[in-house]
Amino acid sequence: MTDKPTGNSDEDSVSLKRNGRTPTNGAAKQTLGMIQTLRRSIRRAAEKSPLSPGGKGSKVTPRTNTPGDDSSSRPPPSPSLSSGSPSTSPLKNIRGFFQKKEEDDADVPSQKGEGLKRSKTDPNIGATLLQRGADIRRSLRFGTKKDKDKNGKQESLIPVAEHVLEEREEEKQEEEVVWEEVEEAYTLPEMPHTPLSVMQINNLIQMEVLEEAHLNLLALRLEFNQEREKCEEDSPMELAKKEKDLNILYGNLREKIQTIVRDSNSLPSRNKALLVHVARIIQEEERRAEEPGGLQSSWREVWREAVAEGVQVKVEKVHLEPREQNASWLAVHLGLLGKAIVEDLENVKKELRSSYPPSFKVFSTYVKSYHRVVGQHLKKLERQVTELKDLYTLLNWILNSYKSEKIMGSQSLRPEMMDESVDLQLEDDFLKQLKDKYCCRVKVDMRSSLDKLVELEHEEIWKDSKTPEKEENILISQIDMDIWTQVKGNTSNSGRIDAQLEQKVISCCLEELKQFPKRFEAEFKRHCGAHSLRTEYQITYINSFNALQEHMDGYRDSCPNEVEAFRKEVKWLIVRLLQDLEDQFKEDVKPYLRRMMTRKWLTNDDDFQMLHSRTKLLSLHCSQMRPPHDQELASRLHYHVVREYVGQLMKNNYSCKNRKHETAAAKIRKQWSQLRDLFEDMSTHEWLHPVGDDLSDIITQKNKADIKNHLQPIVEHYPDFSKKHLVAVLNFRGLLRGREHQLILQKLTRLKKELGGAAGNKSQVLFGDMQVTVNTDCLSSLPFSCPNFCSPITGAT
After folding, report:
1. Burial class (CB in 10 A: 0-12, 13-18, 19+), 406
2. pLDDT digits over 31-42, tens only?
3. SS3 assignment, position 376
4. pLDDT tier, 447 (very low <50, low <70, confident <90, very high otherwise)
5. CB distance 698 to 707 below 8 Å
6. Contact 540/477 with Cβ under 8 angstroms?
7. Where would you tag: which of 71, 103, 239, 470 has the fewest CB atoms within 10 A of its CB?
């Protein structure tokens, strides 16, 4: 290629009239003629390419060379610039011409079988031609298919094979350097002495012959500046017209550059070579920024905006299904978006980066554009997100997935991403607003779920009078597990997103739970106020809310105030349920207790049997209750039964005569034993057990004088046992008055003084709050010296 070709340079000149243009000078003719010559050369090569549809080059068919025709044994000679043209002007755009649409080439007739004649070549263009020639060959992808004749003998294809091997070697060399960036320094090709017309320059811009267009534009700009300096005052209209033309051309050039850059990540193979010229134009315009005639705004910033526009196009092309058609619309979209981001950045890394000088920081620019554009895209998506699962998906993608190895941390983007930020560029309050929206949605969903639980309980349990389930003989419901599962799910999900968000979610759940016990109680009373299984249900929910409280105690470290507030609400609900159980039992046994220590009681056991059966049922209910509430309820009712049973002795309902006191004492002892057996396993009030036997010992004594010897046990066990209580017991025995009566009371007084602090626990009160009714007939026989006894009964001690 270093030899100077001999041929007619007129073949490189093609009239511009076909495109509606008229050449203005010889240099323009030669330049555009060279372009048409290159097109014809490429057209012939494409027809022979195995990749060309319908082309004749799909198979390599050997033929006998004639002395006058050796074009088949060697590739066609590379065309060169005609004399007087810029040194590298058209050849740098060969790939651009080859990839233009068919209408751009329709004007040039196909000339099969005719090789290009060489024109005069600048000796400095050798290296460039080799490089561009390799580009052409690589674009055409010549094949090395072998044809066999009918006898199976292989024809000799040595000239073609050598040519193909040379191409492959050159392709390998090209592939080795494809990862390298364009050098920062460059030499501006020589500008034409006379620029093309405005229309011709504009046509070059539209045809994406950017280097030629820019060189002519610089020449036109230089011409404008020179004319302005020479004849500034003579022809202001002509200068204004040229300045306007310059602005229009520069605007068109900038728009074309923006389009190329914007589409470069979508069409990398088409725009890769063009991007080299784009970068050089930007560099040159930045260098000439202070010179008049150009555009004032930053070319580099326009390039960045174009990159961002391309990224915007990529993001907007990601498929997004309507919410109504796919419940997982957001998760699917974000998955596709992440994949598109990685693929595009891989393409930037492998393809686009090598078309720019290092100062452009191409990969970094694309990464930053994605941070910004995706952040804006997510802001739009957020307006459509209303459900909790979608809010979780969005937050998790922003805070975790985007930074992870799935997207920005992908192995395929290393090591370039090592020095880049992996955080999205979001508005200042966007994340806070999104987290607040998430927490509000948690509260709304939590309240809705709790209401649905109550409705479900009504539909499946209360409405059909279904017996509650049992687990290890404990009545249970699924309410506590359902609530705990939802709270745990919410906190676990939010914890995977952000620790601070997890604490907020826990707080939201507990705040909503705080209102639940009262709402549940109201619904329970409305549906089960007179339910046959009301007692079983109450025990079930005492157990359930107790278990729920224990579950929520696990969040005490995170939200101590909210946990304590919830505990109080649960506590009062359980207290009210226990109180209702207690009131029910008291109401049930009230008529039977009231008939104790009467004439009927002495001869009939029906009332006591009913009392016993109710107490036995109470024992069963308490056994189905979780600690500590089982013993708490049993102890309170144990106290109530003892006090009411013993209290009947204090009401003077009956007085034993004719030695019936012995029968009464035996009956009291027997019944007391049965009651004690029932309460022994479930009550903690062991101190109540002796009272029945202590009173039986007093009542059963045949000799009145012996009663004084059996007072000490009851005084020791119950320090609040007083004279009025002893008078009532003596009255029931049948000892209403007399000297023995007085001696017994005096003995009690002495015992209480003697024992003093040695008596039992004074905090354990049994007799102190018992109502005592005394027969007034006995008062007439009392000595006047007993003012204390004659004082109001409620004050006697």
Report:
1. middle
2. 444 444 444 444
3. helix
4. very high
5. yes
6. yes
7. 103
